[in-house]
Amino acid sequence: MKNYFSSNFRLGVLGGGQLGKMLLTETQKFDIYTVILDGAADAPCAQICNEFHQGSLMDFDTVYNFGKKVDLLTIEIEHVNIESLLKLEAEGLEIYPQPSVLKTIQHKGRQKDFFVENNIPTSPHKRFATLEELKNNTLQFPFVWKSAQFGYDGTGVKIVKNENDLNQLADTDCIVENLIPFKNELAVIVARNKSGEIKTYPVVEMEFHPEANQVEYVICPARISESVALKAREVALKVAEAFEHIGLLAVELFQTENDEIIVNEVAPRTHNSGHYSIEASYTSQFEQHVRSILNLPLGDPESKVAGIMVNLVGDEGFSGNVVYENMENILKMDGVTPHIYGKKETRPFRKMGHVTIVNNNLAEARKTAEIVKNTIRVISK
Amino acid sequence: MKNYFSSNFRLGVLGGGQLGKMLLTETQKFDIYTVILDGAADAPCAQICNEFHQGSLMDFDTVYNFGKKVDLLTIEIEHVNIESLLKLEAEGLEIYPQPSVLKTIQHKGRQKDFFVENNIPTSPHKRFATLEELKNNTLQFPFVWKSAQFGYDGTGVKIVKNENDLNQLADTDCIVENLIPFKNELAVIVARNKSGEIKTYPVVEMEFHPEANQVEYVICPARISESVALKAREVALKVAEAFEHIGLLAVELFQTENDEIIVNEVAPRTHNSGHYSIEASYTSQFEQHVRSILNLPLGDPESKVAGIMVNLVGDEGFSGNVVYENMENILKMDGVTPHIYGKKETRPFRKMGHVTIVNNNLAEARKTAEIVKNTIRVISK
């Protein structure tokens, strides 16, 4: 094993948002020197990493030069310049997840093709290079439209119900999927290290805000039968093995009305659906990411207690310097932990933080989560 | 409630060692802007706080000028210049724990007198201004000698068995205590906020390294009867109420052979005996400290799982650039979390980090803790 702890080893991270910030908690715990690249001077990681570099994650030279300054490179966001990563990798830099995996995943068309090629259950899809091409095709309404690239937190995903809805779509490289009726949206995070050790987290259940298309509650463990849970973990494991990826893979799944498990999409990194793990799991997803990319033994992904995560998104009608109203009221409740990402400006539906609610009893946690959600407000003053 | 989260509020901390570093994890989680003063440019907090100032904690002007730059001041070590804090407080700065409390506690003679005045059970003691004065007194061997000031981690504490041992004592302001035979060394952390809300953590049991006089295992919950545990929490509560302190108070206790609980000494801050709380408790001692000094509602101090803490101290015979040998072997064990404080140089018995072992079953955790202790080595290369 390399000496990562209080050593000269330099870990590079592309992206300095909230996922990077929560990763820093773990690299600080292990005293691993961490260098961050982000486009924004006021990125959540900027002040609290060992070394911060400002620059575009999509710029070849910027990413390449950053890679030359570190001993191992990882990401907290998949929208990064892949060509520079491929060159750095060819020159001997360890990069996890691997650039080839990132390249497949960052394009939803390639991602879906990969699932089909590897017999991973997923809803049928078609790829289109332009909106024009899509319109010239025979389409079965309703369907799901996804921008092939740069979609994030529900942007770039639309449900198209009729001809009229087509006019709202962006003219871009995209995929169209059958709309599959489902009982539950689930997710499983898989960790895999270079030695091939692989572990899955328990299945979580996701509930989305109906308008903003952002996750509202993430519930762990998912309230599903054990057989469905096992099937979900099995499918997620199969996806991770197919990619042979190193690092974390968050696998978003649907439980269909027939209790089939199909893959919606994957993210090659720590994920919103795993934030509950900071308080609830023996090993949080962020520590697990560090362990997996450094080829350390993986930690126990099981839970100490039930956990529910509520996203803190900017309230509608407020833009400007953020104020977390009624914070003292949620801090009064047992097992409630707010995480504030450090974005100074709120905007409607902007992800500003999250709150984790843990309890030995999941039903109790669910009750508290609802009170939390109805109490705290993310506004501006 | 003031707006502490992602706001212009500036929290000042005197001291930037490992306790400060673990506190920063919590202020980062809440995005509270945190400014640190420490004498060492390479203090564990230096690179990861929002703003770092280098300067002596014992220098009046340094501490005073630092206090003028922050909105609220706290400490992670009690050996700080009290006169400057009294002046800052008189000028309106909120300082928690209060300078008057720090003044009493940082001097072990005043601390013991305070216990006596407030009917807090403690072993009988005498105060001496010099070694000469002590030697001129009638002494009953064996007794416990403590330097009145600046003792830390067992330095400044000696068991004096005979006349000969007197020659090993420093010529300093000191106290002498009766040596009380005890069954257990226990500790209880108490949190109290400005509104007077007060909460005690479960009782922990401490085991000391026989030579280095440093804690070797901290075990939570202590393996004692419920009635003794309740008595210990009661005594700790009484101490905190007597001080009317704001912040955390770590109360070190002895369980005597008659199951009496007497106070050994107190520390007005987060404490080594509470490190287990990061992984085991609903609210860690570090988050609780932040909550208490900011007059936020206190969190739940109870545990999710049993926790054991093993200090990582420098192995004898090694000085220089630290290497944590066999780290991968302890990372393989479930529920094991190392914390590396970020000191680049190891020395014999220097506190370099700690490892927490959590498990639903305390006996299992205790077995793992022993394997951990016998596996990992803190050496230099």
Automatic annotation (TrEMBL), chains A, B:
<dbReference type="Pfam" id="PF02222">
    <property type="entry name" value="ATP-grasp"/>
</dbReference>
<feature type="binding site">
    <location>
        <begin position="177"/>
        <end position="180"/>
    </location>
    <ligand>
        <name>ATP</name>
    </ligand>
</feature>
<comment type="function">
    <text>Catalyzes the ATP-dependent conversion of 5-aminoimidazole ribonucleotide (AIR) and HCO(3)(-) to N5-carboxyaminoimidazole ribonucleotide (N5-CAIR).</text>
</comment>
<keyword id="KW-0658">Purine biosynthesis</keyword>
<dbReference type="InterPro" id="IPR011761">
    <property type="entry name" value="ATP-grasp"/>
</dbReference>
<feature type="binding site">
    <location>
        <position position="108"/>
    </location>
    <ligand>
        <name>ATP</name>
    </ligand>
</feature>
<feature type="binding site">
    <location>
        <begin position="264"/>
        <end position="265"/>
    </location>
    <ligand>
        <name>ATP</name>
    </ligand>
</feature>
<dbReference type="Pfam" id="PF17769">
    <property type="entry name" value="PurK_C"/>
</dbReference>
<dbReference type="InterPro" id="IPR040686">
    <property type="entry name" value="PurK_C"/>
</dbReference>
<feature type="binding site">
    <location>
        <position position="185"/>
    </location>
    <ligand>
        <name>ATP</name>
    </ligand>
</feature>
<comment type="subunit">
    <text>Homodimer.</text>
</comment>
<protein>
    <recommendedName>
        <fullName>N5-carboxyaminoimidazole ribonucleotide synthase</fullName>
        <ecNumber>6.3.4.18</ecNumber>
    </recommendedName>
</protein>
<dbReference type="Pfam" id="PF22660">
    <property type="entry name" value="RS_preATP-grasp-like"/>
</dbReference>
<dbReference type="InterPro" id="IPR003135">
    <property type="entry name" value="ATP-grasp_carboxylate-amine"/>
</dbReference>
<feature type="domain" description="ATP-grasp">
    <location>
        <begin position="112"/>
        <end position="294"/>
    </location>
</feature>
<dbReference type="InterPro" id="IPR054350">
    <property type="entry name" value="PurT/PurK_preATP-grasp"/>
</dbReference>
<dbReference type="InterPro" id="IPR011054">
    <property type="entry name" value="Rudment_hybrid_motif"/>
</dbReference>
<feature type="binding site">
    <location>
        <position position="146"/>
    </location>
    <ligand>
        <name>ATP</name>
    </ligand>
</feature>
<keyword id="KW-0067">ATP-binding</keyword>
<comment type="similarity">
    <text>Belongs to the PurK/PurT family.</text>
</comment>
<comment type="function">
    <text>Catalyzes the ATP-dependent conversion of 5-aminoimidazole ribonucleotide (AIR) and HCO(3)- to N5-carboxyaminoimidazole ribonucleotide (N5-CAIR).</text>
</comment>
<dbReference type="InterPro" id="IPR005875">
    <property type="entry name" value="PurK"/>
</dbReference>
<keyword id="KW-0547">Nucleotide-binding</keyword>
<dbReference type="InterPro" id="IPR016185">
    <property type="entry name" value="PreATP-grasp_dom_sf"/>
</dbReference>
<dbReference type="GO" id="GO:0034028">
    <property type="term" value="F:5-(carboxyamino)imidazole ribonucleotide synthase activity"/>
</dbReference>
<comment type="pathway">
    <text>Purine metabolism; IMP biosynthesis via de novo pathway; 5-amino-1-(5-phospho-D-ribosyl)imidazole-4-carboxylate from 5-amino-1-(5-phospho-D-ribosyl)imidazole (N5-CAIR route): step 1/2.</text>
</comment>
<dbReference type="InterPro" id="IPR013815">
    <property type="entry name" value="ATP_grasp_subdomain_1"/>
</dbReference>
<keyword id="KW-0436">Ligase</keyword>
